[in-house]
Amino acid sequence: MKSYKNQSLELDKSITILEQQRKLMLVDLKQQLNVTYESLRPINVINATIDDIRNSTELKNNVLETVVSVAGGYASKMFLVGKSNSIFKKIFGALLQYGATNLISNKVHKKIIKYFSKK
Fold it and tell me: Are the CB atoms for 109 and 73 separated by under 8 Å?
């Protein structure tokens, strides 16, 4: 009889310990769920992305390079072709814009690499 009581007491003690562990794990799980929920909210995702953009010099250089090359290509098209109703001038303008954009992009890219390799 005595061994059954001891076994029962030890079993109850083990059950109590496991229940306490379960409660602690549930609290941890709820906290992690809240952290995950907060990090996945759209405003927090946007803020994290903006912070990444601010801190990334490579991305800033790529954006700058793209803006300069596209603006240069567009300006060259407007300067040389202007607004035209002729299909041939429009095609020529598009080709000119494409070529100027690529040329400017290559030049700007090389200068940016040269500038940052000196530092």
Answer: no
